[in-house]
Structures are given as structure tokens and as C-alpha cells.
Design a protein that fits this description.
The complex is a heterodimer. Chain A is mainly β. Chain A contains one helix and eight strands; from the N terminus they run H-E-E-E-E-E-E-E-E. Classes of the chains: A mainly beta, B alpha+beta.
């Protein structure tokens, strides 16, 4: 208790702000570890074939090229990108992640095979159309897991923030 | 009154040391403290010891790999696996439209049979010379190797399974099969090296415009 009080005297109990992710330009590669992520754009779209869209909603898509840099197939590529400053999203995480080459929704991405992906969020259609959004790229650290005593990718953190222009493709 | 020397007091102490003084008591306590710290340091070092490369349990709990060769069944505790044919291509068709790739498709015709009890195969992956692993593609359904097809004992099932790999990794590969999709620690696994091919062959596969239609799973004669 005395130690805690002493720590408080010197600012040990002050709230600590999360470090800001460095700004990165659209189209630049971000080493997320275990992913290389290149955010290339974002757009609003209406109905997409094969995907169920809730009533009164539209798709908000972030486009990115993602390459698995690990030594094995990975299923956490849906966590590589997040959005802030966009109102009316139905979920915090994207509802679907599509491979653009064939609109497939794989569970795993294999190492060394970069893919253009669309991260899709459902958004309330009544929200104003943003002109720009902030996209965060997340990465992890390869370290020893003290519980399992195995090397794992852990500690997700923001590695970069990209201000991305939004295209309205609903008419197309 | 003195006690005669020939009749000593039975309660007396034969050899008596004077009680320790303050300095001696301090030294004694310091010695005990030093030993305590040393014991804690040794215990901590033992508890926190890791192999030089870390991740010791990964090596300790690695799967038991049964290695065979192409065309021959490889037996594990739960199933037998065989690779009957290997081919490569730029596009595959499972159902519907063709799927292209940033690398090259490897299509393996395989035969799986459960041994003593109904079993599923949850893991099929190619492994390259660098130790990288490439799971059977999940861009379309491949139930036979994604725990979606229950194999009955003694009933062989054949199918073609597609894997997507970078072109520079496709020349020398082996395939692995296991029951568990996620946690394969200390489980048995079948491994079959594929015939090596040269880079020119891989490049020819990758530029072949004709899609390969994948054979769906079917029961075959034992």
C-alpha cells in the first residue's frame, strides 16, 4: 500500500494514453506481423451477390492487399484492419472478408500469397456519406507465451493509421 | 557454598558458551538472509529457464509423424492416407466458376480410410523446404479434409484436393494429414513426400489456361 501511495506521488497512478499509431499514406505497405497490409481504398456499396444485407443498411468496404508473412496458414486476417470515425456500423469487426479475385470467403490465407481483400461492414443507410475515414492496421508480436510455453503471435496493437478517401459506388 | 569437585551438580552444563552478542546475532541473521536470497535466486532461475530458442513445449509436444511414399497407404492410429496422383494448374473448378491463384494450384488425388472407428480428417497441408505450411484451400468447400466428411472404418474414400502455394515453393513439397483441425500436439500425422518437379514445370502449370475440375469425394472398393 505504501509503495502504491509513493508511486502515486510520482505520477504512477496517472492514466496512460495509448500511443498514437503513426500515419501512413494510402497504398503504402504496413508490416503488421504476421501480415503485410496495404490499404488501397474504401467505398460504399449496395447489394452484393451472395451476401445478406440487413434492411435499411449498406456495405462499407475497406480494400487492402494482405500477405501472410508467417510460416503457416492463418485465420486471423479479419483482425488486421479496423475503422474509426464511421457512424452506424452494425459491428465493430467486419462482417465478411472477401477475396476480390473470386468473391470467395476463405477461412485461411496461406503464406507468401498476397491477396486483394474487401473488409465489409454493414452500415445504417441513413448515415451521412463520409468523404474520408481513418483505417487502422493492426499487428502482433511474436513472443513466448508464458502460459503454453510456445512461441505465438500475441499482443495486438495498432501499427498504422491511414486516412482513406471514400468512393460512393452504390449507383454502380 | 561451593560444590565439591568429586560431586558435580547433575543439572550443570559441562561446556557452556557465552550467549551471542549483538554483532554475532546480526551476522547470523545476515547469513540466513543470504542463504534465503540464494535459494530464491536458484529457484527462480530454474523456474524461468527456457531453451536457447524458446518455445520448448512446441518441440516436446510435436506430433508423431508417420512418413510414407506416394502410391502407398500411410497408417496412423486413426486412419490410412495415400496420395495417388499429383498435378498442377493455374485454375481449378470445384463447383461453379474457376478459381485462379496468385501462385499455383497443386491438385492431389488422395485416398483416406478410417481404421477402427468413424473418423474425420481436419487437417491437410503441404509443407515446403523452408518449413512453411499451406493448408488445403478454404476458398471453396473441401469437406473431405476439413472435418466435413465422416469416414467409416474400412470404407475408402477418394477425392481430389486443391492446395494453393507460391510458385517458388512448389518444386519440392510433402503433404500432411491429421485428424485435428487446430490442436495437433502429440497426435499422429501422416506425411507423404510429393515427387519433386523443376521450376519450368511449375511455370508451365501456372500458365495453363485450362481449368482442372476437381473430382468430388466418392467411396471406392477397398
Amino acid at each position: 500500500m505504501a509503495g502504491l501511495a509513493a508511486s502515486g506521488l510520482f505520477g504512477g497512478l496517472d492514466p496512460v494514453a495509448k500511443p498514437e499509431a503513426p500515419p501512413v499514406e494510402v497504398g503504402k505497405v504496413v508490416d503488421g506481423g504476421p501480415w503485410d497490409v496495404t490499404v488501397t481504398g474504401s467505398r460504399l456499396v449496395g447489394e452484393l451477390p451472395g451476401l445478406t444485407l440487413g434492411d435499411g443498411r449498406r456495405w462499407f468496404a475497406v480494400l487492402a492487399t494482405v500477405e501472410n508473412t508467417d510460416d503457416e496458414s492463418r485465420d486471423d486476417f479479419g483482425d488486421t484492419v479496423s475503422l474509426t470515425g464511421v457512424d452506424g456500423l452494425a459491428t465493430e469487426k467486419p462482417r465478411y472478408v472477401l477475396v476480390l479475385r473470386d468473391a470467395s470467403r476463405p477461412k485461411y490465407l496461406n503464406p507468401g500469397l498476397p491477396e486483394k481483400l474487401a473488409f465489409l461492414w454493414e452500415q445504417e443507410a441513413g448515415q451521412p456519406v463520409p468523404t474520408r475515414v481513418r483505417v487502422q492496421v493492426w499487428g502482433k508480436t511474436y513472443r513466448l507465451d508464458s502460459i503454453g510455453n510456445t512461441m505465438e503471435w500475441l499482443d495486438p496493437e495498432r501499427r498504422a493509421e491511414i486516412e482513406v478517401p471514400v468512393e460512393d459506388r452504390r449507383a454502380g | 557454598m561451593s560444590t565439591p569437585a568429586e560431586h558435580p551438580d547433575p543439572e550443570s552444563v559441562a561446556s557452556h558458551r557465552a550467549p551471542p552478542g549483538p554483532v554475532q546475532r546480526l551476522g547470523s541473521r545476515a547469513g540466513v538472509g543470504t542463504l534465503l536470497v540464494a535459494a530464491l535466486a536458484v529457484g527462480g532461475a530454474i523456474a524461468n529457464w527456457r531453451p536457447v530458442n524458446g518455445g520448448g513445449s512446441g518441440e516436446r509436444e510435436r506430433p508423431f509423424v508417420q512418413v510414407g511414399q506416394i502410391g502407398e497407404p500411410v497408417s496412423t492410429r486413426l486412419f490410412d492416407a495415400a496420395v495417388l496422383e499429383v498435378r498442377g494448374t493455374a485454375k481449378v473448378v470445384a463447383t461453379g466458376l474457376p478459381h485462379d491463384t496468385a501462385g499455383v494450384w497443386l491438385v492431389l488425388r488422395i485416398r483416406l480410410v478410417a481404421r477402427d472407428e468413424p473418423t474425420t480428417i481436419g487437417y491437410a497441408a503441404l509443407r515446403d523446404q523452408r518449413g512453411r505450411e499451406y493448408r488445403a484451400t478454404t476458398r471453396f468447400g473441401q469437406a473431405l479434409v476439413s472435418a466435413g466428411r465422416l469416414l467409416q472404418p474400412g470404407v475408402p474414400v477418394e477425392a481430389e484436393v486443391a492446395f494453393e502455394v507460391p510458385r517458388d515453393a512448389a518444386t519440392r513439397l510433402s503433404v500432411r494429414f491429421a485428424e485435428q483441425q487446430i490442436d495437433r500436439r502429440m497426435d499422429e500425422m501422416a506425411e507423404i513426400p510429393l515427387p519433386p518437379v523443376d521450376q519450368a514445370t511449375v511455370d508451365r502449370w501456372a500458365s495453363d489456361p485450362k481449368p482442372v475440375k476437381l473430382a468430388a469425394p466418392r467411396v471406392v472398393e477397398p
